[in-house]
Specification:
This protein has 147 residues and is an alpha/beta fold. It has a single domain, classed as Rossmann fold (3-Layer(aba) Sandwich), CATH 3.40.50.410. Helices cover 20% and strands 27% of the residues. The protein has three helices and six strands; from the N terminus they run βαββααβββ. The protein has a six-stranded mixed sheet. α1 links the parallel β1 and β2. The protein starts with 12 loop residues before the first strand and ends in a 7-residue tail after the last strand. 32% of the residues are buried.
């Protein structure tokens, strides 16, 4: 017997925040954009907020579920300063964005990881010694990833 349930497997809002500081090269930038697009298509959130940041959120884009396949073609990454991920939760609070989770891609060369009020997954590129004190993390090597 199958009964209706109020449990949903839908992700309402997901944030993908890509580090665009000066320490991120073109190869890593392409990986971040490709991984953001793939995550969107795998998870299929109702809305995907794509943020590009350095010491502040330099670019913000929103893709609705029927636009997720356009992320790679339409996105416009920007930034190029230092690296301060505290700008991400500050921006989300300021814009009243309440995501189910945030995925942050960075090389991990930061001074402060910030305070988060929702789950955060750090994708640390080419820095296996980096261990964020908040959220979960995974280490990746850009040499092992396709662009």
């Amino acid at each position: 017997m199958i009964l209706p349930t109020s449990i949903s497997e839908t992700v309402e809002a997901l944030v993908a925040a890509g580090d665009m500081s000066l320490s991120i090269g073109d190869h890593e930038r392409r990986i971040i954009i490709g991984a953001t697009a793939k995550a969107a298509m795998d998870i299929m959130p109702e809305a995907m907020h794509v943020l590009y940041w350095d010491t502040e959120v330099a670019g913000a884009e929103v893709y609705e579920q029927d636009e997720l396949d356009e992320i790679e073609a339409r996105t416009k990454p920007c930034g190029g300063g230092g690296t301060d991920p505290r700008c991400i939760p500050a921006y989300l609070r300021q814009e009243q964005i309440k995501p189910n989770a945030t995925i942050v891609a960075t090389d991990g060369y930061v001074c402060d990881w910030g305070e988060w009020d929702h789950p955060v997954l750090w994708v640390i590129i080419n820095n296996k010694n980096c261990v964020p004190p908040v959220g979960k993390y995974v280490h990746v090597s850009s040499g092992d990833l396709m662009t």
